[in-house]
Specification:
Elements (H helix, E strand, L loop, with lengths): L4 E6 L3 H12 L4 E5 L5 H6 L1 H20 L13 H26 L2 E4 L2 E5 L2 E4 L2 E10 L3 E3 L13 H4 L8 E5 L3 H12 L3 E5 L11 H13 L3 E3 L4 E7 L2 E8 L4 E4 L1 E4 L3 E3 L6 H4 L22 E3 L10 H16 L13 E3 L5 E5 L2 H7 L3 E8 L3 H4 L6 E8 L5 E7 L3 H13 L4 H5 L31
Parallel strand pairs: 1-2, 1-6, 2-3, 6-16, 8-9, 8-14, 9-10
Antiparallel strand pairs: 4-5, 5-6, 7-15, 11-12, 12-13, 17-18, 18-21, 19-20, 20-21
The structure holds NADPH dihydro-nicotinamide-adenine-dinucleotide phosphate (NDP).
The site of NADPH dihydro-nicotinamide-adenine-dinucleotide phosphate (NDP) has 22 residues, from helix 6 and strand 17.
Amino acid sequence: MAYDYDLFVIGAGSGGVRASRIAAGHGARVGICEDFRVGGTCVIRGCVPKKLLVYGSKFAHEFEDAAAYGWTLAPPTHSWATLRDNVAKEVDRLNGVYIRLLEGAGVKLHMGRGRLMDRHTIAIGEETVTAEKILIATGGAPVVPEIRGREFAITSNEAFHLPELPKRITVVGGGYIAVEFAGIFNGLGAHVDLVLRRDRVLRGFDEECRTAVHESLKESGIKMRTEMQIDCIEATNGKAPFTVHTQLGGMFETDLVMYATGRAPNTSGIGLEKVGVQLDKAGAIAVDEWSKTTVDNIWAVGDVTDRINLTPVALMEGHCFADTEFGKKPRKADHRDVPSAVFCQPELANVGLTEEEARMRLGELKVFTSAFRPMKYTVSSRQQRTFMKLIVDAATDKVVGVHMVGDDAAELIQGLAVAVKAGATKAQFDATVGIHPTAGEEFVTMRTARVEPAPRQKAAE
Ligand code: NDP
């Protein structure tokens, strides 16, 4: 049977756009649909606008430090409307770039929500198209727990469009989005309450790094409300100020509540049940190592599969799929040693194993750490510290984890991720000459391993 397309992609975010462009480059006839804006979470309401807000908020620290370097500034004031609108303009520009990239690649864009009608047919509004192969790349969306008054809370989706920046903002959650936005709002001058149900932020990251971030957030003036769960949010005549009631009976007032308690894959309303695409236990689309779903001609990439929910991972998965299915270059996405960063202030970035993971998986370790006050802050009186950590497998001398909390951590770790991916040893790190004076040189001059507890056996033994 002749289909309209060789490939039809549902969702024009990072993974979907990459897959469609690469497939078209391999000669496939490709269509794609999008029900919101081309570019997806990353470009429209995630990584890109978030990083611009981080840049905007960081000026507050720069202005403070400038005085010790001899600058006299009039007390700086900030216009949220200017920052918000300039960020929105950049998002519009990138949205246009993405649309042109699709056009340039010969991919036909259909605006509207795609729904699978059968294994080869997709309805987009009133329109119906057919395709030999289908890729689902519908991403994820924020989840807000079912508490009373949840309708008064916003999520990161709305945070980019606030009419004004309230004086008091409560951020709920202790993950990536919560700590990033707590830092943004704090830098822009709001009083920030960060409410988290654990004792520290960023569960899953290296424990020492979690502590370093937690202490830095506290030091920066954010009120850390730990081991706290929210019972309900009450509003005054349906609007701010809000009273936040905790499960233990406490309460406090705030002008805005933003929930950042995780995201869930966008799997409903796209006809998955109809064609037999199965979900895993966590509600994500179940895929094999080739990103193939339980239906033979349907694949899925990115956050909708809930593997590692990062844009570059979705790009990798989409690219591998397109090369494999349309480029005669079969390759699987490699989810090992994926570096990542949290753009809190200061940043946390890492690649490879946490110390806790390394202890579970490997035998004896050598752990090197360094904690210091960055040179820039020796002149100004900022109390911010940098923390670095190398985790080495003692048996092979391979560096299996690199972690950093400090300014520009993400930029530094990106470079070191190449070394870790290439299997570099600690001896090779030691043989590398540092660049002086930088923070990064610490990574090649850590000489003394931390005194280890008694050697443990591998978990599997
Ligand atoms: P995360 O999964 O990172 O964090 C969710 C947080 O909310 C955790 O602290 C969790 O606590 C807490 N939480 C969950 N449910 C509740 C609840 N019912 N009540 C109170 N707290 C709760 O999710 P995010 O929303 O921050 O981010 C989603 C994903 O987006 C991330 O996994 C990441 O992959 C991606 N992302 C990446 C960024 C980057 O690369 N810089 C930036 C932003 C997002 P607990 O630990 O106890 O479960």
